[in-house]
Amino acid sequence: MSGFDWLVPVILTVITAATPLVFAAIGELVTEKSGVLNLGVEGMMLVGAVAAFATATVTGSYILAIFAAAAAGAVLALLFGILTLSLMANQVATGLALTLFGVGLSALAGQDFVGEPVKALAKLNIEGLTDIPVIGPILFGQDPLVYLSFVLVALVSWFLYKTKAGLVLRAVGDSHDAAHSIGYSVIGIRYLAVLFGGAMSGIGGAYLSLAYTPMWAENMTAGRGWIALALIVFATWKPGLVLIGAYMFGGITILQLHAQAAGLAIPSQVLSMLPYLATVIVLVLISKDESRIRKHAPACIGKIFHPAA
Amino acid sequence: MDNNGITPRLSLAGITKAYPGVLANDDIHLNILSGEIHALLGENGAGKSTLVKIIYGVLKADSGTISWNGKPLEIASPQAARKLGIGMIFQHFSLFEAMTVTENIALGMPGRQNMAELAKKIVDVSQKYGLPLQPDRHVHTLSVGEKQRIEIVRCLLQDPKLLIMDEPTSVLTPQEAETMFKTLRRLAEEGVSILYISHKLDEIKALCHKATILRGGRYIAECDPTKETAKSLAEMMIGTNLTAPRHMDNSDRGPVRLKAHNLSLESTDQFGVNLNLLNFEVRTGEIFGIAGVAGNGQVELLQALSGEKTLENTDELLLDGNPIGHLGPVARRKRKIAFVPEDRLGHGSVPDMSLVDNAFLSAYRTKNLLSNGLINSGKTRDFAEDIVAKFDVRTAGVDHTAGSLSGGNLQKFIVGREMMQEPELIIIAHPTWGVDAGAASAIHQAIIDLAANGAAVLVVSQDLDELFAISNRIAVIAEGRLSASRDINEISIEEIGLLMGGTNSIDSADNQGGAAHA
Q: Of A248, B170, B246, B291, which one has the fewest beta carbons inside 10 Å?
């Protein structure tokens, strides 16, 4: 049995590393499916992380903390929406600005919380089930957000491909002019999609500061927002593949940590680069198949919608 | 506005709509009875689109009343229009390329849809009206004719009382159009009113019961098109007398200028068409027409001719006997070849740049618009203003962006820009697509004059009337193959139509008349 002793903790850490990516990427996927490219994921995650941490330390309520994170992410997304959807600012520039803004804002808001400890988000513990060797802790010993992330992917997939509302959302992303001429509110639908994306990024951030490393540090997302963005292209805008991709990248992150701990003779900086390097390589490979991207990518992504007079 | 005591299904009275600087609709009247196919006729900018958008609830009129079955009401949105039973088939399809036929139709229907049931209904309706459709196909894999069927079926599923069709035949073969007319006549017999917008006067005479004519945003007349001639309709539309283009039937064609010999090109687009051993020649002083339904290799052919895609085998394209297949667009322009591409906004012009800049971009070398490596802005401006004046481009000024012009006016500008560079070979895609009758005849005349002055002209068009009006010889492209070219006097519209549909086996393409000489 000793062979499995090391495996279980590795799997457990992969799950915690992947979960924030799942939240952020699935939220942004919905935003992008509606035809909006919000590059501010990193910023929204950070604001979510600090909002969750602050709420948890002040009130002690983790439910409130998670709601606060979602609200903080959504408020930032709303700002993005007002700028790009109502005022028709360039989405790429606005998204980049949003990330910079989020980094600064979260650092400012989190000043008093740096180094403060908080109890990690409680994990599920079902008598009998959680104690089952190997699969017990993996299947029945996670914190609620992990389960929520799986439910969320299933829900988003169902919403996008099985409901009329999801069909309309995809339609708006595929051709906003056609959707407008049929009579759908392009701007209204995009606002909702952007807000959802912001809220999910916020929860992704909350997972970092409440569960992954229960503390607040400036810029603690360390590029995960960007990986989430890349994941969506990697997954060719399919929710199921986002989940798989998130676990792959989570796995690479953990591999890197374990390799460092094992004292491999590779400089730690190179190992830290691994997830990002893997992102670039995977993106290049995926993007080679242009037709696949085109079939699933929302055709209107990043384009400003001017309602025709 | 009474029609012998019958209440019209839709009645518009005094509709006025102003945009900043333009009165798009000025006191317009329109009455459509049930079961009537009613034509709405007018030039570009006559206010047809605005009026239709008002009826469909996309725009709101500044003043005037709309009555539906005699009851005045307001149509606030497309949904409200659809609820009344008004369906619209757009000129530029409002379809979602990445989705299936069923999904596209579900998007245009109110409420929740059971996809399986809807697919069944689609098949039912499409069979009933002779509009074959496969519900599970993705739209981007369909032909233009099939795409239009989706729009029609989408409207029919909602049990429409009034169907608005904006230039529906502009993308169809004559046979496809005839099938669609049958569907429309049948719908009219069932009591559906149809508002039919088109430039094609013969079509309107054959199909429509009544016609309302607009000019410059104003109501001109209502008439019975079956009792008018195409010429009299056109003159009401334009307000002046029309002259048919003077055809130079020059039997003394000069030497071969452009020759394609087994021209082949593999399309890089997943949904594109490969060019397969095309053979043709264009002589000086002649207009060579290539007919065909869109999506049969025209895009690829134009790319190969313009140099956007260079050929692997440079001998497949010869200019005055010299291979040019390997040359890019600039090098070809240097050899006095001019191009009017298919896509006006994007290939033909830079939408966000002014007309002056757009004139410069294509003509700086031939028109010598550079001085010491810098833009000679005075000269460029003069050139742009020349084009605007000679080709009657309606714009508020040459400093306005290309994107701000209407489609027809931009086309006039692009055609004018290329022609005024005095090319020896000009390749024109869809010269009058979306251009009104008056401007179209001006463009046609310019093309004919250019050929008469010794240029070789290659025209790619879907509009057979146009090709018959101007070309000396004609060939048909279908599924990436080109038929043998025929003299215009030897071939009928019907034969061409069949070749376009690909129903006939196409003659061996390498039987070219006349000895090729350089």
A: B246
Mean pLDDT of A256-285: 78
Strands B473-478 and B287-291: parallel
Partner B, chain A 191-220, Cβ-Cβ below 8 Å = none
pTM, 2 dp = 0.70
Work out the percent of chain B whose per-residue pLDDT is above 70: 90
Per-residue pLDDT tens for A87-100? 999 999 999 999 99
ipTM above 0.90, yes or no: no
The gap from C-alpha B61 to its chain's centroid, in whole angstroms, comes to 28
- Are residues B99 and A171, on separate chains, in Cβ contact within 8 Å? yes
Beta-strand ranges (E) seen in chain A are none
Domain boundaries, chain B: 10-238
Residue A134 Cα distances to A16, A130, A139, A147, angstroms: 17, 9, 9, 18
Judged against a pLDDT cut of 70, whether residue B270 lies above it is answered with: no
- For A84-137, the pLDDT digits (tens) are 999 999 999 999 999 999 999 999 999 988 888 888 888 877 777 777 877 777
Is 70 exceeded by the pLDDT of residue A68? yes
Contact assignment for A175 to B19 by CB distance below 8 Å: no
Q: Which residues share a beta bridge with A301? A: none
Instruction: Quote the CA–CA distance of A53 and A46 in Å, as a whole number.
Output: 11
pLDDT at A166: 94
Residues 6+ apart with CB under 8 A from B275: B263, B264, B265, B266, B267, B297, B300, B301, B304, B480
One CATH from 1.10.357, 3.40.1350, 1.10.3470, 1.25.10 for A2-296: 1.10.3470
Chain-centre distance for alpha carbon B32: 26
**What residues does each domain of chain A span?**
2-296
Which is the CATH superfamily of the domain at B10-238?
A: P-loop containing nucleotide triphosphate hydrolases (3.40.50.300)
Distant-in-sequence, close-in-space partners of B164: CB < 8 Å, separation ≥ 6: B52, B55, B56, B86, B87, B88, B89, B194, B195, B197
